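Researcher: We plan to redesign the surface later, but first we want a full-length starting point. Tokens attached.
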């Protein structure tokens, strides 16, 4: 009996030191394996930097276009919200209107609570502004010089206060048309309606392109991971022979996909930032013509985190597709 107990104690001692003694999941061992696989994957990707950069570039372009359209839609929606209820009206005076009539109309509109600001443009200022914006030269410049009288009328632009209703706008139009010397009143809201329609078009286009280019990013990542699988077939068969689980076999390639997607997100962020820098001067000039400041929205740390996370998720999904299909064909699991 004592011999059997001694033998049993020896078996228990060997079981405690046996690394293969149990199949129970262990947190620290799982974390150590993930850390090891992560470092190995980073080394694999960095050792093939040229190929990895091409994958990053393709994935980055696939992410940059829909993400850029999303930023465009966000800014257009913000512009619409900022200017909603704040269009203005332009009052064009008759050619024979005197300075007293112009001043009287401007003072009347300034005294209304529905009007936030009034800017008067004389006929001479209108002509000078026309010349500066049209860049006149040649025959047109000669024609303007030969004219005895200024063909452009004086005008004023009145900016509505925030939240002005349609009924109040109609009332202001009638009051402005009834002023002495007024020839025409134009309400500046058509461009706002077009901006809203364009924002909806960009939004839907961004969704469609996001799905298509997201699928493209998944396919590119899947193809790259598939090549990595081909280069490690012998290693995978050895892992299968020693009893590796499906998760242990898939894990390196999921990290490959995550790294490819993450790098693509970084490239996409760089492409979008470069694009914003390029278009900033003309956009600032355009908004300046409407007395508005350029405040780009959407390109913030949360957007960058979302872009990097989305790229990583698409990369992992592409890796899962490649691993599931290729390893099943090879009957590794």
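Model: Full-length starting sequence:
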């Amino acid at each position: 009996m004592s011999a059997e107990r001694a033998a049993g104690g020896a078996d228990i001692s060997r079981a405690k030191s046996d690394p293969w003694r149990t199949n129970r999941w262990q947190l620290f061992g799982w974390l150590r394996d993930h850390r090891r696989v992560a470092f190995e994957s980073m080394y694999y990707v960095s050792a093939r930097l040229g190929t990895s950069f091409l994958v990053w570039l393709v994935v980055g372009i696939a992410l940059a276009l829909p993400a850029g359209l999303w930023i465009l839609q966000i800014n257009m929606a913000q512009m619409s919200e900022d200017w909603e209820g704040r269009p203005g009206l332009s009052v064009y005076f008759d050619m024979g209107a005197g300075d007293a009539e112009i001043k009287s109309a401007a003072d009347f509109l300034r005294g209304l609570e529905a009007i936030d600001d009034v800017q008067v443009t004389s006929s001479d200022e209108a002509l000078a502004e026309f010349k500066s914006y049209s860049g006149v030269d040649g025959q047109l410049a000669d024609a303007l010089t030969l004219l005895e009288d200024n063909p452009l009328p004086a005008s004023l632009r009145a900016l509505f206060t925030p939240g002005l209703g349609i009924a109040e706008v109609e009332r202001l139009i009638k009051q402005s048309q009834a002023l002495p010397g007024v020839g025409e009143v134009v309400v500046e809201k058509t461009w706002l309606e077009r901006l809203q329609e364009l924002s909806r078009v960009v939004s839907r286009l961004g969704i469609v392109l996001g799905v298509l280019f997201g699928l493209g990013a998944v396919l590119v990542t899947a193809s790259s991971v598939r090549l990595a699988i081909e280069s490690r077939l012998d290693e995978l068969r050895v892992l299968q022979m020693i009893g590796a689980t499906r998760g242990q076999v898939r894990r390196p390639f999921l990290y490959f996909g995550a790294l490819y997607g993450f790098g693509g997100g970084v490239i996409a962020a760089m492409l979008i930032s470069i694009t914003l820098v390029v278009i900033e001067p003309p956009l600032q000039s355009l908004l300046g013509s409407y007395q508005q400041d350029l405040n780009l929205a959407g390109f913030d740390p949360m957007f960058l985190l979302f872009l990097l996370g989305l790229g990583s998720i698409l990369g992992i999904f592409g890796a899962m597709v490649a691993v599931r299909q290729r390893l099943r064909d090879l009957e590794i699991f």
